[in-house]
Specification:
With 242 residues, the chain is mainly beta. It has a domain of 104 residues. 10% of the residues lie in helices and 27% in strands. The chain has a 4-stranded antiparallel beta sheet with strand order 2-1-8-5, with no helix packed on it. It is rod-shaped and about 130 Å long.
């Protein structure tokens, strides 16, 4: 009988030892190994604000993963955006800070007249000596005509904006321009056609007729105030300033 009790005691020791070992190994709780299938974890299973940058694979977040209008300037590293990151035509004047653009920010030759507000360019913006007559509209340039005139007729020797001249009577001549001159100032002087001396005469000028804004009439007078033709080899110069 004592031998059987001894055997039971050994069996109880083995069982107790096995239970104690299993309990210690699992921290007192029985745990079964669990395998989580791929793609089975969703946002509902993740505690809010527990995912960190270390949990996200580099270059794995795309625009579709970000709520529209959710990224602000503080989310973007200074100096990290380039022209390729901005959609063409998407920036407006409201996106650029006043006074922040300099000439270095504008590509050479890209600014056209439609990019400049009317009446904003002053003489300080124009390089000295850079404007020539070809840059000015005809209406902005002084028009003039050097006319050889005598009792036989007239001849347009040279000028700008004048196209014809005609003798219409003793000491009376008309000059026609390509653009209206009725809103301009006029002046005429008697002078020699070349290097000679002009006689003691003077000239006056008026609009040829109220209904014609292209033609001026020049009258030449002698020292006594008589309307007479200029001598052969003489004539007048008519200047129109608008």
């Amino acid at each position: 009988m004592s031998g059987f009790k001894g055997f039971l005691g050994k069996v109880g020791l083995v069982v107790a030892t096995s239970v104690a070992t299993a309990t210690l190994a699992t921290g007192g709780v029985a745990v079964a190994a669990t395998v989580i299938p791929n793609n089975s974890v969703n946002s509902a299973k993740i505690i809010n604000n527990t995912v960190k940058s270390a949990d996200i694979k580099n270059n794995s977040v795309h625009s579709i993963d970000i709520t529209d209008n959710n990224v602000t300037g503080t989310d973007i590293q200074d100096g990290s955006l380039g022209a390729a990151d901005v959609a063409d035509g998407s920036l407006g004047s409201g996106d650029v800070a006043d006074g922040s653009l300099t000439t270095f920010d504008v590509q050479d030759g890209t600014v056209a007249s439609e990019d400049i507000a009317d009446a904003t360019v002053t003489s300080a913006d124009i390089q000295n000596g850079s404007i020539t007559s070809s840059d000015l509209a005809n209406s902005a340039m002084t028009r003039w005509a050097k006319i050889s005139a005598d009792a036989t007729g007239t001849s347009l020797l040279r000028g700008r904006g004048a196209i014809t001249s005609t003798r219409v009577g003793a000491g009376a001549y008309t000059v026609t321009f390509v653009q209206p001159v009725d809103g301009c100032g006029w002046s005429a002087t008697v002078n020699d056609d070349a290097a000679g001396n002009a006689g003691p005469m003077f000239a006056t000028v008026e609009q040829n007729s109220a209904g014609n804004d292209l033609v001026l009439r020049v009258r030449t007078w002698d020292a006594a105030g008589n309307q007479v033709d200029t001598p052969d080899g003489d004539g007048f110069t008519l200047t129109v300033t608008c």
